[in-house]
């Protein structure tokens, strides 16, 4: 005999989705009820169970459905109706174990439409996750993913499960897959990029730190992201003062210096490296932005040192350039280029970095990195890209990649 499974199961299914996975609330829409061919014993008990549910006797319905479930030789429709009605009661009784058992039974019946199999398995994963069974949750989510490989959000959930199981490299790879999947249709969420970087950093995975940090600033080049990425790079690269200056210059170029500590460190490092013009520029900017107070003893003392030195250096730039051009090697040209960079004389600095490279006797990677920075600020993007391509030695080769990401943001 044929009966129709209707509103009770549809309501139950919607309620389950709301309880277990809020993002699936769209499933509240009514579905066309399937026609079922039930065996007589199951049909009788199912009808009694539906009547009990209609009267609000959820527990009584469960007992009737247990009897139906115990009947031997049930057909697929029997299994489907028993589990769907049990699911309805389980939700109202807030019995997660019974909800999970009913979901599994409904899937096993083979009567669910393909789209509902996806939803049910997703809920099974959510319930397993809720009770801390990460292996079961991942297995369910992976089956859902096999049915719907474009579900980037699900990939993110799988990545979190992998991280909870102490599989950071797999987790990062899955997050990167989620980002790539999402980017096919729309921009991936910033938190996915940041999460991948956080896992790489916490797990001390150098290669993954590089790939995830680059991806973050390319997709979301905010000051906060730039500062986080470059501070992480600086910590891992163990740079000297010269390398530290190049990092802080890029942080500043991305408007990512924050607070007294950043400005003070930059100004002090530039002073130590004999660049009073750059130190004064940084102090002035910090004061203008409210990060430094001109009345603070440290700021007053440093300003008193660098202000006259900056004026003296600026007055000597032309003479220093003449000496650099006459020198046997490129060291004087490099120093004079650095001074011009500190004063923001981008075109002249670029000219002198090129001269230093021609004459030799200097670190070519450092010179090409700074040449790219000055050319980028001067508006010669192609020239800057060519200079960055010549930076090959560690640790500046990675810093060059960050400079390339910054360069890509310039018009």
UniProtKB/TrEMBL annotation:
Residue ranges of TPR repeats: 118-151
Domain of life: Bacteria
Pfam families: TPR_19
Keywords on record: Signal, TPR repeat
Positions of transmembrane segments: none
Residues making up the signal peptide according to the UniProt record: 1-27
Entry-linked InterPro entries: TPR-like_helical_dom_sf, TPR_rpt
UniProt protein name: Tetratricopeptide repeat protein
Organism of this sequence: Sandaracinobacter neustonicus
Highest classification ranks of the organism: Bacteria, Pseudomonadati, Pseudomonadota, Alphaproteobacteria, Sphingomonadales
